[in-house]
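Researcher: Here's the sequence for the chain we discussed earlier.
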Amino acid sequence: MESLMLARIQFASTTIFHFIFVPLSIGLAFIIAIMQTLYLVKKKEVYKKMSIFWGKFFLINFAVGVVTGIIQEFQFGMNWSSYSRFMGDVFGAPLAIEALLAFFIESTFIGLWIFGWDKLPKKLHLACIWLVSIATMLSAFWILAANSFMQNPVGYVLQNGRAETNDFLAVITNPKLLVAFPHVIFGALATGAFFVVGISAWNYLKKRDLDFYKRSMTIGLIVGIVSSLGIAFSGHSQSTYLMGAQPMKMAAAEGLYEDSGDPAAWTVIANIDTENKDTSMRLEIPYALSFLAYGEFKGKVDGMNTLQAEYEELYGEGNYIPPVKTTFWSFRFMAGIGGVLILLSILALYWNSRGTLVNKGKFLKILFASIFLPFIANTAGWIMSEIGRQPWIVNGLMKTADGVSPTVSAGSVLFSLVAFSLIYTLLAAAMVKLFVKVAKEGPYEKQKEDSSSTDPFSTGGLEHATE
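Model: Thanks. This is the structure I predict for it:
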């Protein structure tokens, strides 16, 4: 296998694995901040216990996420040196700000939050977790600013064979960034919300600590339904944006080789024949694609064949059609899961408010399984965004094949791919083991006889810290 394909596989695997942790950190930090705010307002000890208990999951996830992020960024210089030379002036600034500003805020105030229980004034301690939550979102903003340039290059000049920033304000107000950032944040909040909901549902089934988990479930479901609806509305904004900035991605996401009719129907499922460039056996919703693309129930969408001819005139001969099946189905996984999350939130919130959710065993098992749905949707959305941009690594400026390191052999990439995969496997196993341990211990784990720790995050210290 050639080095280009191995480098792409490595980038995809490391980024997907890292992106498991980022949304969960953002979502849990926000939910924990809400719980601690309720503790300050209502002065009920249970909300403090909730903040500490769910904080354990957050800290485990954050620690593993930091490690995976370092590995993920390391490969830019290793496997993609040509890309780094071309994009370094633009790409470097947002990444540096993310590390020097957002990550430092996260790290500093996480430490103050962990060790500040009963030491800092309550309002100041609460401010620490809110600053952590804001910083996690700022991290996402700066990373997306860099990625958005790859989707829609703005604020730059080409000089000496490199893209150099000449308008930093344009980079951080990129139209792609402005539609992507809310979508990612809502997705992250849904990830954290359904993690809380799923763990709470598991304890409903066990009939353990029902008052604690009912309160957690309620907060998770409220955040879940708001964020799921936010995903839908922000996703619509992204679709409208794609029509103007990346029409080929939009056409691939719909499996449209030929121009649609006017109005355009949205395809739910279809059989896609990439060899003959044909899509058959469509199950369609009339008018829906026009609404997604233009916000109104009229307007046609150009097909990939039409766009291919236009791109050849602009950029020269070559294939400008991305992997269609991957783009098509990843979009449907993302959109379909979003609809399922909305439905689950509404049903669970209704039954939980009536006190009957605890008796619905089969539905609780579905809620427990729903922990994984936002992770799948987040991954599918990322795949659709990145694969749908191909063959470009920087849209309209540099092709992916031109961004790979020219002197790195396929053997070297394969070795690092295997090594990173092994590291990630060990990290995943450790994280799952710790998550299961914390979940089984629950929020009221008894103080160990041989422990005198007052650290609320130490093993067995939770009950002592909240007495």
